[in-house]
Amino acid sequence: MAERRVRLGGELAVMTYAFVKWVVLAVLAGVFVGAGSSGFVWMLRGGEWISELIPQTPRLLLLFVGFSVSTYLIQKYAPDAKGHGTEKVIEAIHEKNAVIDVKVIPVKLAATVVTLSCGGSAGKEGPAAQIGAGIMSVFAQKFKFSEYDRKRLVVCGVSAGFAAIFGTPVAGAVFGIEVLFVGQMFYDVLFPSFISGMVSWLVSGWLGIVHPSYVITSVEAVTPGLIGCVILAGWFFGLVALLNVEIMGAIERAFSKVQAEPIVKALVGALLVALLALIVGNEYLGLGTVTLDSFVAGTAALPKSAFFWKMVFTAITLGCGGSGGVVTPIFFIGASAGAAFASTLGLDVPLFAGLGLVATLAGCANTPIAATFLGIELFGAAMGPLAALASVAAFLTVGHRGIYPSQRLARSKSPLIELSGDVERVDSPIGIFAADRSPVIMKIASFFKSRSNGGKN
């Protein structure tokens, strides 16, 4: 009996120490990242205000300036600041023991502000996540924390950055741990992630950051018919997410194969974006939050192909050397796809635009749980069951792919599919074979095997 009391007392003492330690560290993370993310947003608003003083058509010339300056800063001072920041954080956690160069923080901030202010199509979540993760990585290195603690602090930085930008502390906390692995979450980081997200959200509000707020009054009582429509919509959003992932990857690979100086690639990308803006409209430039809001409100006047054009604008911006995130464009893509789906089938546009926003994120980022909480925090509790259903459907539909190539595949999404043992990243060549040996599955496997062999069995 005495021995049991000693063990219980020892365990309680250790857990109390860990509790207090991570409360303190998570609060510090929330304060640092909340302040840093708020500064980033205010700088971005200042840059956008200056660019809006220029008439729209001449403003397209700023694309050449923005992409060139962004590329120069990244190439000269911090190559890890290239592209969308969350991907680089995931890569740092998995491959670099969560060590992030301090130079990434100012370079990412400056490059993203320039890219977005000059009209590049990107988001602000990735930079906030990378800035937040960078702050916590430098903090952990400075005070010589262990590798394990450093990784936890970096995850707290990601969660805090997401929460500060979107005003969604719960979704931010879950996103920070869910985005690392497909099919696995580490709950030991959840508590500090929640605290850092909450504190960062509060700090950003105190510093004047206004977070998005949507009201969807048309959430209906759940009926069998509505459930069927939401499942169908989730499948559609999964296809949209998969298309976005493939377009992003294809355009990035195309630019990487071009044998030219990075500045030349940036100028080519700026030219392509400017020409597209003249042809299909300038609503796809920049963050696109005004247009996004109109989709959720059901008042947008863009064509049903709007989600495709936003994919192309964003892929070119980030592929040619621009800097920014991908989550805000994914919101635009998902909301516009949801509006197109609803208007085609005669359904409620604001409702399905909101579902598209969260479900497309679930498919692209492989984060259905975070996307569900995002739907609740953005649109209200009544949206929760529908957001969960659409998000999981999209997550399954997209398969073993994602917008963040450094994500690790922890387990298969379906018991009918087994992944070969050498698969790690979602961008790895995946050897998939059927765990189910039923005739239907075997015929499907045989068909795609023959296609991959050029029609030869």
UniProtKB/TrEMBL annotation:
Its main location: membrane. GO terms for cellular component: membrane. It is a multi-pass membrane protein. It holds the Pfam family Voltage_CLC. The chain crosses the membrane at residues 12-36, 153-177, 189-209, 221-243, 263-285, 306-324, 382-404. It comes from the Bacteria. It is found in: Membrane. InterPro entries: Cl-channel_core (IPR014743), ClC (IPR001807), ClC-type_chloride_channel (IPR050368). Keywords: Membrane, Transmembrane, Transmembrane helix. GO terms for molecular function: chloride transmembrane transporter activity. Gene3D superfamilies: Clc chloride channel. This is Chloride channel protein EriC. It comes from Jonquetella anthropi DSM 22815.
